[in-house]
Design brief:
Layout lengths: L25 H9 L9 E5 L5 H8 L4 E5 L3 H13 L7 E4 L3 H7 L4 E6 L7 H11 L4 E12 L12 E8 L2 E7 L13
Parallel strand pairs: 1-2, 1-4, 2-3, 4-5
Antiparallel strand pairs: 5-7, 6-7
């Protein structure tokens, strides 16, 4: 697993041992930033279920102003810190919350321009994340983008909990969906595979 693009390009990232964390594949991360037209430059980013931190580190590498990582497992959170140190990310550009996502969403201060979430598969957490974000739409800037990686078929693709689905693409067992709080937000073409 490596950083795909930007100032940290090529840096290899660690993953915690075991099967509890499923790192996002390089090609899926590339899709999130290239195919979905997500541009993190100067953005405030929220990385939920951060795991290795790869999604948020990719955002920092591509010019995000600040990333807040949320990871409840202390051992996994330590790997995020190691990865941030490895790429020499300035401490002023990131924050790590060792909390469950539900609790963190209740404490965070707005606004975020980009929300990245890669919850554990087959637990229905993607739908839960959408509902929790809908309950806290104040966390999102008007042009915010929410990117979810879930198991294929794990989310409905219509207006859901106050968020509008604007993009989806399947990668084997994984699916990337992009959501917007505003139906007028500019969106890439919706793709199906």
């Amino acid at each position: 697993m490596r950083v795909i693009s930007g100032r940290f390009r090529g840096h290899r990232l660690k993953a915690p041992p075991g099967r509890e964390v499923r790192p996002t594949l390089d090609r899926v991360r590339e899709s999130i930033y290239d195919l979905t037209l997500v541009r993190p430059v100067d953005a405030r980013v929220l990385d939920l279920f951060a795991g290795t931190g790869a999604l948020g580190i990719e955002a920092l590498s591509r010019g995000a102003a600040h990333v807040t990582f949320v990871e409840r497992d202390p051992r996994v959170a330590h790997v995020i810190e190691e990865n941030l140190a490895h790429v020499h990310a300035e401490s002023s550009t990131w924050r790590l919350l060792r909390l469950p996502v539900a609790k963190a969403l209740g404490l965070l201060a707005p606004p975020f321009d980009l929300v990245l979430a890669d919850p554990p598969y087959r637990l229905g957490l993607g739908v839960d994340v959408l509902q929790r974000l809908a309950d806290r739409l104040d966390l999102l800037s008007p042009e915010a983008v929410v990117v979810l990686e879930t198991e294929a078929g794990g989310l409905p693709f219509e207006r859901n909990h106050g968020l509008v689905n604007v993009f989806r693409r399947r990668y084997g067992e994984s699916e990337v969906t992009v959501w917007s709080p505003s139906p007028e937000a500019p969106a890439p073409s919706r793709e199906e595979s």
